[in-house]
Structure formats: structure tokens, C-alpha cells
Specification:
The structure holds two protein chains of two kinds. Chain A is mostly beta strands. Chain A contains no helices and eleven strands. Chain B is mainly beta. Classes of the chains: A mainly beta, B mainly beta. At the A-B interface, strand 4 and strand 5 of A face strand 5 and strand 10 of B.
Chain lengths: 112, 113
């Protein structure tokens, strides 16, 4: 069945450094890839998304890249801050379906 | 405004109780979702409503009963739950059931004793 692998499961970085989280999807028909940030005790919050007709998208310190050939997409956070500490989930969605296939999550810790 | 609200924030119930979770959005979205999330796991889809009609039930036990009274409201009625049903219950909405962004609420933390 459809699957999204996410790595690493935990990531610790020093404040100001960059963080990269990678996801690999199995369904080549997937065409929408959102990233969610979930802080403790809260619901997932959309931070950035990308559609399959775009290779890269940036929003201030956050960027997402998509390699359709390799079926990889990655989240890049630059100049990390302590408030970036949270669990990050990637997801993939296939055209014509309602369902997100979520990755297993990455716990990011930004050390001050 | 991309806000989805959920009440209550926390709920403790016994296995013989009946309770309801509520979700509301005022973004004009026509698709609404219930998810269940266990600790350290991604959200798992339970139900999808599209234009106020149940379109997807992910083989959820009948002790969970969804209801969509109107396009802005979504309820989840709970009856005879088991301790393993303890989890964070998340509501989400999107413009339609197509490849649209889903916006999540803060969730209801449920504990079944």
C-alpha cells in the first residue's frame, strides 16, 4: 500500500544552525505534499506545502524541495530558533483521493 | 482566518458514559474530518464528511458516531468506549474533498477510564 517514510525520527541542532527532514513516498501518483508542525498539546499546524508541478518553495526560513523522479521531498529550516522545537510531520496525497498518508514524524529540538 | 475550534479541550469518561466532541469552522469549507492521534504517532483518519454527507468511514467501531448538523459543525458522539480509545481527537477541514489543504483544530484530549 501507499507509504511515506520520514527521517530522522529525532533531530537536535544548535540554535542558528539548519535542520533538514526528509520524506520518501511510494505512490508516484501523489501530487500534494504538506508539512505540519505539532507542538506539545496542540493540533498540527500547516507550515508549508508543495504541489507536484513545483520543485521548490520558500517561505522565510522554511523551504521545501521535491524530487519527483526519486519520490523524495524535504523540509529545510534555516537559522533555527528554540520555538522551532516541535514534532514535524510530512504527508503525501494522491490526486482523486481524500486521504493524507503521513510520515512517522520527526522530533526537532533546537538547543539554545 | 484558518481556525478550527474544538470543544472540550479535555474529557475524562467512564466506559459506560455517553459524551460528544464538537468541532466548528467558519472558513466556508465543505469537507470536514475526524482523526485519532495516539502519543508519538501521526494522525489516523476516522471519518470524512463532504457537503454534510458522510463519504468515508475508515472502518471505525460503531461506538464512535459522527454527525454533521450543518456545513460549519461536526460532532463525534462517543458511547461505551474502551481504555484503548484514549487519544487526542483532531478535527480538520478543507475547501473540498479534493487535493486541498487540511486545517486542523487543537484537538480534544480524551481519557477513558
Amino acid at each position: 500500500g501507499e507509504n511515506v517514510e520520514q527521517h530522522p525520527s529525532t533531530l537536535s541542532v544548535q540554535e542558528g544552525d539548519s535542520a533538514v527532514i526528509k520524506c520518501t513516498y511510494s505512490d508516484s501518483a501523489s501530487n500534494y505534499f504538506p508539512w505540519y508542525k505539532q507542538e506539545l498539546g496542540k493540533g498540527p499546524q500547516l507550515i508549508i506545502d508543495i504541489r507536484s508541478n513545483v520543485g521548490e518553495k520558500k517561505d522565510q526560513r522554511i523551504a521545501v524541495t521535491l524530487n519527483k523522479t526519486a519520490k523524495h521531498f524535504s523540509l529545510h529550516i534555516t537559522e533555527t530558533q528554540p520555538e522551532d522545537s516541535a514534532v514535524y510531520f510530512c504527508a503525501a496525497r494522491t490526486s482523486g483521493t481524500y486521504k493524507y498518508i503521513f510520515g512517522t514524524g520527526t522530533r526537532l529540538k533546537v538547543l539554545a | 482566518d484558518t481556525e478550527v475550534t474544538q470543544t472540550p479541550k479535555h474529557l475524562v469518561m467512564g466506559m459506560t458514559n455517553k459524551k460528544s466532541l464538537k468541532c466548528e469552522q467558519h472558513m466556508g469549507h465543505r469537507a470536514m474530518y475526524w482523526y485519532k492521534q495516539k502519543a508519538k504517532k501521526p494522525p489516523e483518519l476516522m471519518f470524512v464528511y463532504s457537503y454534510e454527507k458522510l463519504s468515508i468511514n475508515e472502518s471505525v467501531p460503531s461506538r464512535f458516531s459522527p454527525e454533521c448538523p450543518n456545513s460549519s459543525l461536526l460532532n463525534l458522539h462517543l458511547h461505551a468506549l474502551q481504555p484503548e480509545d484514549s487519544a487526542l481527537y483532531l478535527c480538520a477541514s478543507s475547501q473540498s474533498q479534493g487535493p486541498e489543504t487540511q486545517y486542523f483544530g487543537p484537538g480534544t484530549r480524551l481519557l477513558v477510564l
